[in-house]
Amino acid sequence: MSIKKKYYKTKDYCRISFRLPKEAVGDANTVHLVGEFNNWDKQATPLKKLKNGSFTGEIKLAENTEYQFRYLIDQQRWENDHEADRYAPTPFGDSDNSIVIT
Length: 102
Hints:
By secondary structure, the chain is mainly beta. The protein has one domain: Immunoglobulin-like, CATH 2.60.40.10. It has one helix at 22-25; strands at 2-7, 13-20, 31-35, 48-49, 55-62, 66-73, 77-79, 86-89, 96-101. The strands form 2 sheets. Strands 3, 6, 7, 8 and 9 form a 5-stranded antiparallel sheet that branches. Strands 1-2-5-4 form a 4-stranded antiparallel sheet. It is 4% helix and 49% strand.
């Protein structure tokens, strides 16, 4: 899993690239990026499946902000990003959410 950030001198947002390798998702058919930036909508931000079985996607986020998120694999399994900036407990107390800081 990886997160890459691209900042712009003349913009007030950061472009974030997310990538999950096939090793992290197995034979998944779908992966969605779900978090505060899309009101935890499980359908709003699908990642693109590549020919090698990995998934990738990009979003723009306001700078100087923290966003909690997780990956939803095949609408059943939640995963965190191992390269997240940090983690926070979920409101349900059963696990953590990943955090990306822009």
